[in-house]
Amino acid sequence: MRSRNPFWQEWWVLVAWIGGATLLGAAFSTAYNGFVAGLILYLVWHLRNLRKLDRWLRGKSSGLSYNAPGIWGEIYYWLYRLRRRDRRRKKRLSSVLDRYRASFEALPDAVVILGEGELIEWWNPPAARWLGLHKKQDIGQPITNLLRQPEFLRFIAEGELETELTIRSSIDERRMLSLRLVPYGKDETLMIARDITRLQQLEQMRSDFVANVSHELRTPLTVISGYLETLEADDSLDEPVHKAIGIMGQQSRRLQSIVSDLLLLSRLETDTGTRHEEDVDMKALLSMICDDARALSSGQHEIVLALNSNAGLHGSRDELRSAFSNLVYNAVHYTDAGGHIRVSWDEDDLGLFFRVSDDGPGIPENHIPRLTERFYRVDAGRSRERGGTGLGLAIVKHVMLKHRGELEIYSKPGEGSTFTCRFPEPARSGSLS
Ligand code: ADP
Predict the structure, then answer these.
(1) Which residues of the chain have pLDDT under 70?
(2) At residue 420, what are phi and psi to the nearest 5 degrees?
(3) What is the pLDDT of residue 271?
(4) How many CB atoms lie within 10 A of CB 70?
(5) Best substitution site from 334, 376, 399 to test ligand 1's pocket, by max atoms within 8 Å of Cβ?
(6) Spatial separation of the C-alpha atoms in residues 203 and 298, rounded to whole Å
């Protein structure tokens, strides 16, 4: 049982001690000397205990007896208790830490903990295998010293949190990794890498399959269309046969459009790096597209072109023509006769942009996020009737991705639609007047 108020008790010890010493001194007729000697002895006793405490705190002595007399026993007792509590807390904390560490180690994904300045602090076994991290020499190194791919350096520098980066493992060429950065705590980041090799292989197989099927279909379709065209021109055929051949010709042309759009999409997906890029004269390109759109509309729509910027774009002319013409032709296809279509080339604080607006039927809001999916149509019947392939906006999206741009769609039923292709600064070419 510890005393309730050791401080007051110590006062009484002091008074008793000094008093006793003074009385003893008085017995030898020197009370003052007795008082001083008592005080000195009291001080020496405290200094000895302070020294003991100091040695113990520095770890030079192993034990303090809390049976020590006076306030020192009390101080030692509470120090022991604090130390015991501290040890218990540390043990609990380290077991929690061990459990977290074990669960991170058991994760199938690679995890790297990065501290301030992207210095490597810890990683799990998959990270060691896929990123080639070595226990001894790599702790405390900036991650950018070890992973040197330019796209990774850009990814880290920009601190991209929303997007994932796909890179090849530097250790195993066949392994594809998808990286993500997750900030936590103060200036700390979790870098998580997922193995997406199998997913990529499946994606490649799918894309190869579509490209091969489209390619194989192209030649027979050309032959069929050729014969049908010849038969369509033959006036000697009976009316019902002629009509049937006309429908067959129409459908085979639709099939040809689907096949050529699928081939274009495959080409856009598989970036061979061989596509031709140049400075595109937007004035010439858009004037040509609008002339074609007027021919397609046969005077049923008012088509206006506004060139508000002289800047050109650097990119693939064919791909840009395909994307822009898809948007303009869609406006012609989906806007009823008498409608107005406005095509513009502009720039604002965000950069350059191409825009097509119409006052057609508009698109309900729930369809807008899915419009760029392949074969997604708001009204399949209307699309087919107008010769649509259902691939136009998917092509626009891919062309924009390749030009580091974005497609924005704004539409309200009954109010028309606006499609905007935004290009950030790097896609801009020199001024073309
Ligand atoms: P499609 O070949 O069917 O036109 P797209 O991918 O070009 O395929 O367009 C997808 C769908 O988006 C179309 O089926 C149509 O329903 C809708 N759409 C595209 N442009 C417009 C527009 N200007 N006005 C209204 N609906 C549009």
Answers:
(1) 1-4, 271-274, 425-433
(2) -120, 130
(3) 66
(4) 19
(5) 334
(6) 42
DSSP secondary structure, 181-246, as one string: EEEETTTEEEEEEEE-HHHHHHHHHHHHHHHHHHHHHHHHHHHHHHHHHHHHT-TTS-HHHHHHHH
Q: What pLDDT does 64 receive? A: 74
Summarised one tens digit per residue, pLDDT across range 115-172 is: 988 899 999 999 999 998 887 788 899 999 888 888 888 888 887 777 889 999 888 8
- Exposed / middle / buried, residue 287 (Cβ in 10 Å: 0-12, 13-18, 19+): middle
Instruction: Quickly list DSSP for 11-37.
Output: HHHHHHHHHHHHHHHHHTT-HHHHHHH
Q: Which amino acid belongs to residue 179?
A: L
pLDDT at 431: 46
Supply the residue whose CA is at minimum distance from atom 18 of ligand 1. Answer: 330
Which amino acid makes up residue 400? Answer: M
Task: Identify how many contiguous H helices and E strands the chain contains and give both numbers.
Answer: 13, 13
Q: Determine whether the shortest distance from the Cβ of 339 to ligand 1 is under 6 A.
A: no
Distance (angstroms) between ligand 1 centre and the Cα of 384 equals 11
Which two structure tokens, joined as six digits, stand for 136? 């001894």
Are the C-beta atoms of residues 309 and 330 closer than 8 Å to each other?
A: no
For every residue of 249-264, DSSP letters joined together read HHHHHHHHHHHHHHHH
- CA-to-CA distance for 183 and 190, rounded, in angstroms? 6
Residue 266 CB less than 6 A away from ligand 1: no
Residue 428: the pLDDT is 65
Ligand 1 atom, smallest distance to 416 CA: 24
pTM above threshold 0.85:
no
Q: Which atom of ligand 1 is nearest to the CA of 331?
A: 23
| Maximum pairwise Cα distance, the chain | 155
421 CB-contact burial (10 Å; exposed 0-12 / middle 13-18 / buried 19+) = buried
